[in-house]
Amino acid sequence: MAASGPRRGWAWLTTPPADRPTESDLATTDVLGLQLPVRATVAVLLTTLVVLVDLSRVLVPASIELLGHSPAELRALAAERVVLYGVLPLAVVVLGFRDRPSRYGLTIGDARAGASLLAVGVVVMTPIVLWSATLPDVRAYYAQAAAPLPDLLLSNVLELTAAEFLFRGFLMLTLVRAIGPIGVVIAVMPFALGHANKPAIELLSTLGGGLAYGWLAWRTRSILWGSIAHVYIVTLVMLAAAGPVATVVSAAATR
Questions:
Q1: What is the 3-state secondary structure (H, E, C) of 86-120?
Q2: Given CA atoms 26, 54, 199, 148 in this order, what sign does their dihedral have?
Q3: The domain containing residue 151 runs over which residues?
Q4: Are 184 and 207 in contact (CB under 8 A)?
Q5: Which long-range contacts (CB under 8 A, 24 or more apart) does 48-52 make?
Q6: Whole-model pTM?
Q7: Among 189, 231, 198, 230, which residue's Cα sits nearest to residue 213?
Q8: pLDDT < 50: residue spans in the chain
Q9: In 3D, which of 116, 77, 125 has the Cα closest to residue 230?
């Protein structure tokens, strides 16, 4: 009987809200002999295209590119990604799939689990983020983006909420319904690709971070909690890399 408590806790932790695939989620089509799940295929192709367009910067004016990794460029990129990562896949959900956005993470989901796991994640990640902000390449990359907190929050909320919707809501939840939990893992690949221009430690961390954000969205059936965590982590590293926190932590680490 003593083990019943831990078993119940583990069952609660690892059991997502009910979300049975519909016939439309599982529908397939034949493409030159390939039996492809329609919605999952559309999600994979669109997500890949969106990430490639974003990385190519073909939609970003040259005048913005010349600003470097500055607050002005961040705002421009955030606006671009709201359209590419948010509006475009949402239009596919509503007009193409003819489905409810809430099925793709635009909902509160399991609020109890989301809030609890978010709190744990913040406690665990805060010292790691502060340490990473002391690394020379991280400081050099993010110090350029120094701006008042409200400006950083606005840019990060717009960009990262759209990113969570694209990778975890639109792509991952579509894959999970079509091919099962392996969709959580597959969705990490384009997410990692989207970090190709970031510092090495951040790029490498996308494997673990992408799995964590994916599991959280799978568990809660919502992108809200991952979006909050993502905004917190990115904003913290930007502030720490550009401010005195990184200097203090770096000095303490060398003693």
A1: HHHHHHHHHHHCCCCHHHHCCCCCCHHHHHHHHHH
A2: negative
A3: 25-253
A4: no
A5: 48/190, 50/84, 50/85, 50/88, 50/89, 50/166, 51/190, 51/193, 51/194
A6: 0.90
A7: 230
A8: 1, 245-255
A9: 125
What is the predicted pLDDT for the residue at 175?
98
Cβ atoms of 60 and 80 closer than 8 Å = yes
Classify residue 48 by burial, with Cβ atoms within 10 Å: 0-12, 13-18, 19+: middle
19 lies in some domain:
no
**Domain contains 107:** yes
Task: Judge whether 4 lies within some domain.
Answer: no
156 located within any domain:
yes
- CA distances (Å), origin 246, targets 51, 192, 240: 31, 25, 5
The values of phi and psi at residue 31, to 5°, are -120, 100
Antiparallel, parallel or unpaired: β 28-31 and 34-37: antiparallel
- Residue whose entry in the numeric block shows the structure tokens 């340490």: 131
Residue 25: C-alpha distances to residues 2, 102, 120, 216 (Å): 41, 14, 33, 21
Number of structural domains, the chain?
1
Q: What are phi and psi of 248, to 5 degrees?
A: -65, -45
